[in-house]
Specification:
Blueprint (H helix, E strand, L loop, with lengths): L1 H13 L8 H4 L5 H4 L4 H16 L6 E4 L3 E4 L7 E2 H13 L3 H15 L13 E2 L5 E3 L4 H18 L7 H11 L3 E5 L19 E5 L28 H10 L5 H18 L37 H12 L4 H18 L33 H9 L8 H11 L14 H13 L11
Antiparallel strand pairs: 1-2, 3-4, 4-5, 6-7
């Protein structure tokens, strides 16, 4: 009997039973940390500590400007990005921090969002911290998060407290639909306007956030970047949020986008390792030339870290692809387990071999493979998908990991810090669908 009890305890602690229904249906969220034996008061304190690290601590990435605005900065790159601004807004609405949310939105709208012209409604993906745009072009994940965060803000706080959140979300949704624009050299994602070469003639092209043919999100909504996608931009459950609460007349379309996004992830994640490339074709195949093996774009690296966390979110909220998602979670954890839970590197080729030389993507002036806490975080978040014993080892490693500088001085308060916070939100059941007040 004692042996049986011990086995039962082990199953409860280490091999949690996967959920069969998502929060859209049940309104419930797993606190996997408590399920695995951590005390709720310790979990709550840890979550608040990590939130404070990002927004208030000595290594914070959130800064207030005057009485009404604020920004999130990628400290090591000395800029503010739509990625970080929209992440900050999502975190703020989840934590019911209306002042932070409103400050970030006001800054984003004033400095990043194009208020007129061909790019109206879109956001310049990178700005200096004084608001000067580094590039006029958008990175599509920013719009994805801005829209979803604004809809959650509308549901949580209403639209009559100074900002009409739903109207702002609807405006972006209307602007991201396909439209014809003049193609000009320069100003795109990753290129400053002054880097444009020559006086090339203008030509017409279509601009869209969602590729009309495949219904998959673009890497960038104009130019070369709309010819392919980024697997880490795929969060199908966000489209379900749009379908339920955007009231833009496109509910069926957004539900179809969610469906094909899930199907795409099956193709983009390697069958053996579970790893996905940084960018890939819309059919999930690897890139040739730009973005391919030449510069490591076919490898699992910084953007790619988000995919396990994103799939865990879609599973927890929707459960629409639960069988594949559970298999994926155990597959990718099995790969990283084979590399050592406390030792795996933060960049790999999708076949599981290590990149070399110029394939390794640098950051903050360093080009080096590391055991980065951002990836430690998202592989732990994947435990929400899993029922194998290994999942608790990933969670324990994440709980005990310290966010501090490496021996060579490299430290990323921004990306590592945000992924760390998101993952604690997931694992503690505090990353939730915010429904309208009744």
């Amino acid at each position: 009997m004692l042996v049986a009890c011990a086995l039962m305890a082990g199953q409860t602690t280490y091999a949690a039973e996967p959920w069969k229904k998502g929060a859209f249906e049940t309104g419930k969220y797993r606190n996997l940390l408590v399920e695995m034996g951590y005390k709720k008061e310790d979990v709550d304190a840890k979550l608040q500590e990590v939130f404070n690290d990002v927004f208030y601590g000595p290594n914070k990435v959130y800064f207030e400007v005057g009485d009404t605005m604020g920004y999130v900065s990628d400290i090591k790159n000395h800029d503010a990005r739509t990625e970080g601004m929209s992440y900050g807004m999502m975190i703020a609405v989840q934590f019911d921090k209306k002042d932070i949310f409103d400050r970030l939105w006001r800054w984003s709208r004033k400095y990043m969002q194009h208020q007129s012209g061909e790019r109206e409604g879109y956001f310049a993906w990178s700005c200096r911290i004084d608001g000067t745009q580094n590039s006029a072009g958008a990175a599509s994940d920013g719009e994805l998060y801005f829209i979803t965060a604004l809809l959650f803000a509308s549901n949580r706080w209403g639209n009559d407290t100074g900002i009409n959140y739903k109207a702002e979300a609807q405006r972006i949704l209307n602007c991201i639909m396909p439209k014809e624009i003049a193609s000009r050299p320069g100003g795109g994602f990753g290129q400053r306007p002054e880097q444009a070469q020559g006086n090339q003639p203008e030509r017409k092209q279509m601009m869209y956030l969602i590729d009309p043919e495949t219904k998959l999100i673009t890497f960038t909504p104009d130019g070369f970047g709309q010819r392919f996608t980024d697997p880490s931009y795929h969060i199908p459950a966000f489209y379900e949020v749009w379908a339920k609460w955007a009231d833009d007349g496109r509910s069926d379309y957004w539900m179809e986008c969610a469906k094909v996004s899930r199907e795409f992830l099956h193709k983009a994640c390697d069958e053996k390792t579970g790893l996905n490339p940084d960018n890939c074709q819309y059919d999930g195949s690897l890139m040739e030339g730009f973005g391919g093996r030449r510069n490591g774009g076919n490898n699992f690296r910084y953007d790619s870290w988000r995919v396990p966390m994103n799939i865990a979110l879609d599973y927890g909220w929707s459960c629409a692809d639960q069988e594949w998602q559970r298999q994926y979670g155990e597959k990718i954890q099995n790969f990283f387990y084979s590399q050592g839970v406390n030792d795996f590197m933060d960049q790999y080729r999708v076949d599981g071999t290590l990149p070399e030389g110029g394939e390794i993507l640098g950051a903050g002036g360093f080009r080096k493979l590391r055991h980065s806490i951002g990836l430690v975080a998202t592989t732990a978040a994947a435990s929400l998908l899993c029922s194998h014993d290994k999942s608790k080892e990933f969670v324990d490693a994440f709980w005990n990991a310290k966010h501090e500088p490496f021996e060579d001085g490299y430290f990323d308060a921004y990306y590592d810090g945000l992924l760390r916070l998101f993952s604690f939100m997931h694992l503690s059941g505090n990353y939730q669908i915010i429904t309208p007040k009744k």
